[in-house]
Amino acid sequence: MNRPEPAGSTVFAGAGPPTQSPRDMDDLVPPAASVRGLRKVFRRTVALDSVDLDLPTGSILGLLGPNGSGKTTMLRLLLGLSRPTEGSVRLLGEPMPQRSSAALPHVGALVEGPGFHRHLSGRANLTRCADAEPLLCTPEVPGAVREALHRVGLDDSAADRRYGGYSLGMRQRLALAAVLLVPRRLVVLDEPTNGLDPAGTRDVRRIIGELHRAGATVLLSSHLLTEVEETCTHVAILAEGSVMATGGLDALLESEGPALAIDVRDGTDRTAALTVLRSAGILGYLDHGRLVAGLADTTPDEVLRLLVHAGVPVTEAHRRRTGLEELFVRLTEEST
Ligand SMILES: Nc1ncnc2c1ncn2[C@@H]1O[C@H](COP(=O)(O)OP(=O)(O)OP(=O)(O)O)[C@@H](O)[C@H]1O
Ligand SMILES: [Mg+2]
Three-state DSSP class for 2? Predict the structure, then answer.
């Protein structure tokens, strides 16, 4: 896997001692965003509670969590679109929402419908966004619009159609184009691949890589664990409004210990096999039809003995590193 390194690591790699870990470097550079004691209550719903989180500068942080766990609420609070019930938010060092006007020009966000007009073309809509960008002067607008449309793959004929006739994927692409109008220090994306086909998903992944290489810190929420595992340098896992784990992806997964991947004969009832593991208190899940058992509290021998005893036809088994899905299942199921 070719995961990008946080920009912070590059800066310090030559200067610091060779043993310096990314965690240490996160501590040296001020975070691109941070929240402390964050609580958000909607009427009777506690959407976030006692959340402390840092977004390391130069990272691509994947914010993961089940539906309703508070991801969008967190992103909206960071951007000053909503006020916390308690706690504090800093964005690029600025207290939010009080200093929004200092921080937001450097932040590109795809969090909610950006209010595009249905009767205007994609290009006209994007031009309105560009006109409102404090970092763009008027003569630069047409070029910035052209370039952004090109990067998100909206060709001239698509760009000149009415926004009202756009598919969900085209709407996502146009919203992403608005993020790309000027270079950003921070990009915040709420489920950026939502509604996109595989080509669109690949484009978003490419654009995230380009933004990161250009020096931007990226914060994205997603339900797609594989995508986060392949794209992100850091993760934060939310469950019911609390942060269950956060840190560098590699460090988090390594701290979880190994897992056992088990192949079973074709036609086997894999859900029943999973139930055998779970009823013995072993963390198990299915990964592309393969059974995976966490080895935190058990041994490979014990896992295989249980399965064989229950009549599950095991054909092969091997140890592997814990995957993000396993960590996610453990942390989010523990909270329920
Ligand atoms: N404007 C609102 N009014 C009332 N309740 C809200 C509001 N916004 C969010 N909530 C509640 O806060 C909780 C967290 O919602 P949020 O949208 O942040 O979750 P999420 O993790 O983004 O979910 P999803 O994965 O479905 O997008 C939910 O219980 C939701 O119903
Ligand atoms: Mg959401």
Answer: coil
Question: Which of 280, 292, 283 has the alpha carbon at shortest distance from 320?
Answer: 292
Q: Report pTM.
A: 0.80
Phi, psi of 104 (to 5 degrees): -65, -30
State the Cα–Cα distance between residues 188 and 80, nearest whole angstrom.
12
- Residue 60 sits in the same domain as residue 163: yes
Output the CA torsion 215→221→224→230 (10° steps): 20
Q: Are 146 and 18 members of one domain? A: yes
Closest CA to 129 of 143, 111, 141, 146: 141
Q: What is the pLDDT of residues 132-147, one digit of tens each?
A: 999 899 999 999 999 9
Q: Which structure tokens are listed for 203? A: 């484009």
Rounded distance between C-alpha atoms, residue 204 and residue 60, angstroms: 13
Do 221 and 304 lie in one domain? The reply is no
Q: Which residues of the chain have pLDDT under 70?
A: 1-27, 113-114, 334-336
Alpha carbons within 13 A on the beta-carbon side of 111: 18
Q: Taking CA 234 as the corner, what is the angle to CA 229 and CA 240, rounded to the nearest 5 degrees? A: 90
- Looking up tokens 């250009």 gives 214
Domain count, the chain: 2
Domain that holds residue 276: 259-320
What span, in angstroms and rounded, lies between the C-alpha atoms of 18 and 215? Answer: 23
What's the CATH number where 168 sits?
3.40.50.300
Ligand minimally distant from the alpha carbon of residue 111 = 2
pLDDT at 249: 92
- Compute the distance from residue 282 Cα to the ligand 1 centre, in Å: 31
189 CA from centroid of ligand 1 (Å):
16
Residue nearest to atom 24 of ligand 1 (CA): 67
Report yes or no on 198 lying in a domain: yes
Atom of ligand 1 nearest to the CA of 74: 18
Does ligand 1 have an atom closer than 6 angstroms to the CB of 40? no
